[in-house]
Amino acid sequence: MDDGSTTESILPVVDWLVDGAPTAGQPQDVLAQLCDRLLVCGLPLHRVAMFITTLHPNVMGRRFLWRPSEGVLVTEAQYDIVATDTYGRSPVPVVFEHAETIRRRLADPTCPNDYQILDEMRAEGVTDYLIQPLPFTNGEVHAVSWTTTRPGGFADEQIAALEAIRRPFARLAEVYALRRIATTLLNTYVGRGAGERILQGRIRRGDIERIHAVILLSDLRDFTSLSDRLSGEAVIGLLNSYFDCLVPALDAHGGEVLKFVGDGLLGIFPVADDPVIACRGALAAADEARAALTEANAERTARAEPELRYGLALHLGEVLYGNVGSAGRLDFTTIGPAVNLTARLETLARDLERDLVASAAFARHCPEALTSLGSFQLRGFRAPQEVFVPSGDAP
């Protein structure tokens, strides 16, 4: 297809973007199908990359890299990339900050070699490099880069075609970015399962369901006295260190953190079909967390810092799972007698100076790993409750 027909042939691609790229289901699909359509329109694309920053506690942004016949590779960039020489010598932060288009005609001997990536492009035989801003409606600027190996680089009509799709492409990229941010923030602040339910529309007060789950409750002991002795920054560091030992273990074994309550953590392991799977997963998570806390305490002792003394309680039962609160301020949580029993067990763990205790309902699914300590009267429960500890911890 000759260059003169590119502008006219690009119009269906623009319409496809404006319609929301209905044939694509994921952002990587959008980029892959967009590039395929542009190839049909006669654009000699070699490598295309989209750079989208995001709102995430650990991830600064994502790169979507397309190559012909290879599809789209998605990678994440951590925040520490900003301090690297590679990022500092890249055109991407320039586009982010100034919202300007940068073009380097690498086939031209007088082309400046002012960005590190240009050497890589030349090694691949690239003759033209174009990076454009993708402006979002909230003022944020993201970026997309286009390269070609065509002799002489992109023709003027091809550059005009890429400019024609830039803004509708930015609108669609923003839609997907906002969806991802919403999911990330919900997962970060209310938990993965709760976040999915909220996005599915479970947002009304009283939207409650009964589920069978393992409940895990943890508490950091002596927190009040530590808070009184330590600076605020040291207390936050201590809590983060504690939760860093717990949360990854829960995530790795099918658990979900519902909330942090001061120095405590409430998590659940929903029962899908077999309670044995949930119980063994929860026990494995507890064991992994205890090992991580032992290692963390060794490091803290070496630094003359106070140890993390804690208690964990496990119970299997039915809970009410959903929205509780006032009309305009809701919390997605679990409530019910099973949660109350777990809280009493955690208090008993403190009184018995045990790191981990479990209920009889939980222990019957892990009989080889737990040993009974006997029955105890727990506040608020008429019948004594049999309590179990890991067999290796039993007297």
Question: What descriptive keywords fit this protein?
Answer:
alpha+beta; Beta-Lactamase; Alpha-Beta Plaits; 2 domains; eight-stranded mixed β-sheet; six-stranded antiparallel β-sheet; 13 helices
Number of beta strands: 14
Helix content: 40-55%
* Mean pLDDT value: 90
Q: How far do the termini sit from each other?
A: 82 Å
CATH architecture level-2 label of the largest domain = 2-Layer Sandwich
Structural class: alpha+beta
CATH topology of the largest domain: Alpha-Beta Plaits
Q: DSSP helix count?
A: 13
Largest sheet: 8 strands, mixed
General description of the model:
This protein is α+β, with helices and mostly antiparallel strands and 395 residues long. The chain has 2 domains: 3-189, GAF domain (Beta-Lactamase, 2-Layer Sandwich); 191-393, Alpha-Beta Plaits. It contains 13 helices and 14 strands. The protein has helices at residues 6-9, 11-18, 27-40, 85-88, 92-98, 117-123, 156-190, 192-199, 223-229, 232-252, 275-302, 337-351, 360-363, and strands at 47-53, 59-67, 71-78, 102-104, 128-135, 141-148, 208-220, 256-261, 264-270, 310-326, 329-335, 356-359, 370-376, 385-390. Strands 7, 8, 9, 10, 11, 12, 13 and 14 form an 8-stranded mixed β-sheet that branches. A 6-stranded antiparallel β-sheet has the order 3-2-1-6-5-4. Strand 13 and strand 14 (385-390) form a beta hairpin. Helix 7 (156-190) crosses helix 8. It is elongated, with a radius of gyration of 28 Å. The model has no long low-confidence stretch (mean pLDDT 90).
